[in-house]
Amino acid sequence: MNFTDELVQWYLANKRDLPWRNTTDAYTIWLSEIILQQTRVEQGLPYFNRFVEKYPTVSDFAAAHEDEVLKLWQGLGYYSRGRNMLKTAQLVQQMYNGVFPESYDDLIKLKGIGEYTAAAISSFSSNEARAVVDGNVYRVLARYFGIYEAINSSTGKKTFQSLATNLLNKQNAALHNQAMMEFGAMLCKPKNPGCGICPVNVGCAAFLNNATTALPVKLKTVKVRERFFNYFLVTDGNTVLMNKRGDKDIWANMYDLPMVETPEMLPAHELAKLPEVTAMFGNELNITEDTSVIKHILTHQRLFVRMVKTTNTPLILKENWAFIPVDSLHELALPKVIFILIKNIFNL
DNA sequence: AAGCCGGGGAC
DNA sequence: GTCCCAGGCTT
């Protein structure tokens, strides 16, 4: 048996039972694929189930409001996925009359669908002969064929996509793709791969050369920026002043609190006198509580976040500010760290 | 081509 | 701490 046939045999004997594998409905598969971008199966699974229940068809999804989608997406990260899904659902409703496209060429044009996702949806829904290349496939191919080209260079991407396409079983694209990814996720793992029980170890360049830890090769480490967020809790117990974020920075269109960003974390008494703060509240801030600083890690940023409670109220409400009834707080999509800051105060 | 976009789990 | 996850969009 050749390499890919071995992996298919391994897959049939070892595959997990995952809900999106029991359908060929392009809409349902699309839901799963977007949710699973840069996301582990175990983390995405409960979100998939909630989305399928709330939006059984793409028409149901298209009728949703963005706040509602982001709320359902809360905690999953990379929120542009949720925002793009709504746009795509609305476009499919209008342009395709609610019938989700199945062809790669149609799918690749949609917001939030790139090469990987178009290949995944087209092959899983209609068995179109398109090879998926995700993180798992990069790793499996780099190791088995001993490819030291960086998987995140533009030439490397072409090399791996070309190799994956050549290897594709064009009669059984769906099964082939599932097998490649599941093998990478379950056995040919980033750390401690199961080489001892691997069905293709005798042909694996990395195994034979003791190079599994060196492959795949990936370029550069991301630069991490440090930021200091000072949030203000303005509440009378019945309502709380919330801010809807813009669409440029992190957590686009989600909700947090009024805040100032500082170049470093200041003691409360210095924060209270900051010109930016006194301008906002009319005079020196009266701080009644100050949380300990929470360190919150994102891919490109290390956030240091604190929240101060104040008896002051702002002079004027900025455009994106509103006093929200505490009873309605649970409807707002909150970034993880905001949820942590206020969950105990308002019983969220 | 490089930078940006979350949160969590394994080690 | 570091790495990476069924990646894609913007500049």
Question: Can you offer a commentary on this structure?
Answer:
GO terms for molecular function: 4 iron, 4 sulfur cluster binding; 8-oxo-7,8-dihydroguanine DNA N-glycosylase activity; adenine/guanine mispair binding; metal ion binding; oxidized purine DNA binding; purine-specific mismatch base pair DNA N-glycosylase activity. It holds the Pfam family HHH. It catalyses: Hydrolyzes free adenine bases from 7,8-dihydro-8-oxoguanine:adenine mismatched double-stranded DNA, leaving an apurinic site. Its EC number is 3.2.2.31. It is an enzyme of class 3 (hydrolase). It is a single chain. The protein is of the alpha+beta class. It has two domains: about 5-210, Endonuclease III, domain 1 (Orthogonal Bundle), CATH 1.10.340.30; about 225-345, Nucleoside Triphosphate Pyrophosphohydrolase, CATH 3.90.79.10. Helix content is about 40%, strand content about 15%. The chain is built from 15 helices and eight strands. Strands 1, 4, 5, 6 and 7 form a five-stranded mixed sheet that branches. Strand 6 (about 295) and strand 7 form a beta hairpin. Helix 2 runs antiparallel to helix 8 (about 115-125) and helix 8 crosses helix 11 (about 175-185). The radius of gyration is 24 Å and the shape is elongated. It starts with a helix and ends with a helix. The model has no long low-confidence stretch (mean pLDDT about 95).
Overall helicity: 40-55%
General form? elongated
Q: What is the annotated CATH architecture of the largest domain? A: Orthogonal Bundle
Q: How many domains in all? A: 2
Looking at CATH, the homologous superfamily of the largest domain is Hypothetical protein, domain 2
> Radius of gyration over alpha carbons?
24 Å
- Could you tell me the strand content as a percent range? 5-15%
Tell me the CATH topology of the largest domain: Endonuclease III, domain 1
Query: Which residues form runs of ≥5 with pLDDT under 50?
Result: none
By CATH reckoning, the class of the largest domain would read Mainly Alpha
Question: What structural category do the secondary elements indicate?
Answer: alpha+beta
Quote the average pLDDT.
96
What string gives the helices and strands in order?
HHHHHHHHHHHHEEEEHHEEEEH
Our measurement of the CA-to-CA distance between the termini, rounded to an integer number of angstroms, reads 56 Å
Q: Tell me about the largest β-sheet.
A: 5 strands, mixed
| Total helical segments | 15
